[in-house]
Amino acid sequence: MSEKSEAGVDEYVLFRLIVEGDASAFEVFYKIYYPRLFRFILRVTRDPDFVEELIQETLLVIWKRPDRFKYQSKLSTWIFGIAYNKALKAMSKNAKHKSEVNVDDLLDVEGDEVSLTIHSWENEDWLNTALGILTPDQRAVIELTFYHELNYQEIAKILDCPENTVKTRMFHARKKLKNFASNQ
Predict the structure, then answer these.
(1) DSSP state, residue 143
(2) What is the pLDDT of residue 119?
(3) Which of 1, 38, 70, 99 is deepest in the core (most CB within 10 A)?
(4) pTM of the predicted model, to two decimals?
C-alpha cells in the first residue's frame, strides 16, 4: 500500500518510521496532516475553539498507539476516523453549535499561511453559512467527499456506518444545499 501526500511523500514509509519511534518522521507526518485535519475538524464541528485540541489529540493517538492501525483501510481513512470520533465527543460534551465561523479566529490559528483574496473569503463565508444548515454527519460526508476525495466506502469506515447511510446523508445534504442556494 502506498499513499503519497501532496508533497510526494509516501505516508506509509513515514508511518513505519513512526511505529519505530522516529520523532522526525512524526514531525513530517504532523505537517502533512495538520492542514487536512484542520479543515476537516473545522467543517464538522464549526467551532475553531475545538480544532487545535482535536488535531493534537488525533495525532497523539498516531504517535502513542500506531499499533492500532491494522492496514484494513487506507492510512488516511483511519486518521480521519479518529478525528471524526474525537470531534463528535467534543461536540457532545460542549453541546454548543455556532452558526458562523469568525474569520479572525481562523487567521489567529492558521497564521501567515492564509493568503486568500477577499473574494475567496466571501465564497468561503457563503459556503460556511450553507454548511451550517447541515448536521455534523452531513457536513462530514460533504467534506470527505469533495475536499478529501474519498469514496463512500472509505467514508463509511471513517463514520462507522453502512455505505448506504453515507449515500443517504449525501442525498439529504445535497437537497438542503440546493434549497439553500435557490433561496439566496
Answers:
(1) I
(2) 42
(3) 38
(4) 0.69
